[in-house]
Amino acid sequence: MSAGRCIVLVMDSLGIGAAPDAAGYGDDGADTLGHIVAETRDLRLPVLAGLGLARAAEAARGQPLAHDIGDVNDNAAWAHALPVGRPKGSTGGHWEIAGLPVHEDWGYFGRDSADPYPAGLLEALAGQAGIDGVITVGRASGTAVIAEHGEAHVQSGRPIVYTSADSVLQIAAHERVFGLARLYAVCEAARTLCDAYRIARVIARPFVGEGAGDFRRTDNRRDFAMPPSAATLLDRLQAHGVPVITFGKIGDLFAHRGIDTQHPATGQEQVFDALADTLANRPEPGFLFANFCDFDSKYGHRRDVAGYAGELVAFDARLGRFLAELSPNDRLIITADHGNDPTAPGSDHTRECVPVLLHGAGVSPGNHGRRDGFADVGATVAAFFDLPATGLTGRPITYETDS
Hints:
The structure is a single chain. The protein is an alpha/beta fold. It has 13 helices and 14 strands. It has an eight-stranded mixed beta sheet with strand order 10-9-11-1-12-13-2-14, with helices on both faces. Strands 3, 4, 5, 6, 7 and 8 form a six-stranded mixed beta sheet that branches. It is globular, with a radius of gyration of 21 Å. The model has no long low-confidence stretch (mean pLDDT 95).
């Protein structure tokens, strides 16, 4: 086993150009990073560019970014990965990173706006959760849902159920009026009911405030994912004696399986702080797996180009300090789970390639080419810890430069 730690940072939704099959998803021309750069003429990301982000994007999109975001370092190592699983969301993307591509698509609610949920589902939910019904909404924006239905929820005590173009059932309730623990219990009941429909996630969406103009979501969101259908990289590392430590919503996405320690931090600074604390206090070998969800949830879905650009700048600055906290035996991989182009129509994820930036122990500089599946990230982690490849998909990124 390696004497160092392997860290994977997932910049949630940072796609770098349309995947070859994007047209089949209605996402032809999607390019999260490329369009943000094009619309933010002064955007500079010197640390990410130094690690090879612009080079990875150029390889994925077939042309350079609209303007220079920084110089590449001589020791930079990069690749770009194509999705092979059917879904284009966080659960499928993270499972694919961990060696379990989802080849059968998830189920979806809300495609029939007049009847968005299967007959009897919400009645069964009310019965199992012990609540007096729900406020039913179809596909909608979460911020709009609480603005439009929050007061009715407060008056009736019924949680708000809604969905989106993703494979999700979302349940919103006021933290003080309804109670956070009670909301989580309702979501747990919904999770058991949604398994039959292959719904990837049930999401608790708590909010606070005194009225429609004041309601706002809190950081106490929780995701209740379908359990992985087979062993993932996390399970196999754990069985191999490698501690698995997760940050952000990773634990939720894997149904808390194959994980030794969880840091359910929210927000970029909190995730980085938890990572830094772990690096400082756990020098022994281990796998650190972190998700930075604000890119997606706060800016991608809301089609906020300026906000997304600002989040990238803040991430880049903190990443520079984070690199200094790594030991010589550590390896860092930065990637993404899907795209969410803030210039695209609607509010859905976009089908895109993702960057793979490698730094640290045993990394050979240069372009490591096109990777056919996000699972090459997980395979590279497995190889770092000398984990047998049996049962894992993906091809490790070699120590030699791929053309």
